[in-house]
Amino acid sequence: MEKVRASGVCYNCLTKGHRSKDCPSTKNCQKCGKRHHTQLHEDQQQQQQPKPMATPTTQIDAPAQAAQQPTVSSMPCNYTASPKTVGSQVNFITDQLANTLRLEKRKVEVPIGGINEIRTVARHLIKVHLQSRCSDFRIELECLVIPKVTGPIPSINIDITDWHFSHGVQLAHPNFFKPEKIDLLIGAALFFDILKTGHLTLDPCLPELRESHFGWLVTGTLMSKSNYEPIQYAQLASVESIENSNRSENDSRRAAMYTVRLPLKPNADKLDSCRNLALKRFFMLENRLQRNPELWPQYVEFIREYQLLGHCQTINEADDPPQRGKYYLPHHAVLRPSSTTTKCRVVFDGSAKSSPYGLSLNNVLIVGPVVQNDLFSIMLRFRKHRYVFTADIAKMY
């Protein structure tokens, strides 16, 4: 139906040049007899179901310090929708921003359905207090924590040289024309509570300005001056019922992501915690960092980033059950001054052996098959092309 509307063809014979009421074809819908194509027939149950709407994406700028209140703004959204009901009723926040703000997380398990029936599961819920920079407006949100909300918006830099804003217009996000990461999305139900009645038109070829409690939002379609079509993002998410998800307790599948335990050999129970060795190396590393003022901030930044990405977290050894298996992984810095990207890399030593059995983490892990090509094949393929590129994958393991 959406394709037919966009193409401007007759609903009955699917050809251009006339409307369905003027259609010369004598054929009608084979299911209800009305003047539309059978492929466009919708039964009564389908017609009563609410149609989802693309939810405008909002951006929250991560503050320099966790104690500061975040600022919310809306980026230009290129979509057209005229539904009777709103779609996304949920709010999302990235795991990185939640960690930066040090917000308390509550454990949940909420299945989420998205565009193209993509399924994922949110495992944490947090409360966010937002306050406007330009008014006394405050709002409290319950947000599901997910790794990524969407891609950068807008997808490309927008030239606003010829844009003329009225005097006194305070934009919710002054740098809306630059592609930036989206850290928070407000669901459609609350989004319309944020909007106010103000409306300004810049130019027929430019987006519109909508007044909100957070400032003026730039929204609408931007007519491209070139043949380049930027990537467009639409946000649609619905929370599914856990009871109706038909997932057994032993089913650990999570859409395109799998959560599995490390495959261990039978002798894994003989693996010592390696705590003393890891602590000794840590003290050595700390002494080295103190002697190298250039290396110290790089190493601190790496650990901080690991925390923000959720790769590590603080633990309390006193809370561990008596029989819990554990292994402390030593780590050290490797300097590469010639590197153009990361001059300081952190290496985790999975080969560090513990006593009294002399086993390391690598010794007790079951090794899978080799998936990369052998070096000889790589070198031969390297010789086939005139120009070649080399690349590195950050945090591959």
List keywords for this structure.
3-stranded antiparallel β-sheet; 17% helix; alpha+beta; 20% strand; 397 residues; 15 strands; 8 helices; 6-stranded mixed β-sheet; single chain
Task: Please tell me about this protein's structure.
The protein contains eight helices and 15 strands. It has helices spanning 2-7, 44-48, 95-100, 188-194, 275-291, 295-308, 361-364, 375-382; strands at 58-61, 71-74, 91-94, 106-114, 119-131, 138-146, 184-185, 195-201, 208-212, 215-219, 237-239, 253-254, 257-258, 331-335, 344-348.
Task: Quote the distance from N terminus to C terminus.
Answer: 46 Å
The unreliable regions are 44-86, 241-255
Number of helices: 8
Mean pLDDT: 75
Strand order of the largest sheet: 7-3-6-5-4-11
> Could you tell me the strand content as a percent range?
15-25%
Structural class: alpha+beta
**How much is the radius of gyration in Å?**
28 Å
String of helices and strands = HHEEEHEEEEHEEEEEEHHEEHH
The count of DSSP E runs of length 2 or more, i.e. the number of strands, is: 15
Query: What summary fits the major beta sheet?
Result: 6 strands, mixed
Helix percentage: 10-25%
Q: What would you call the shape?
A: extended
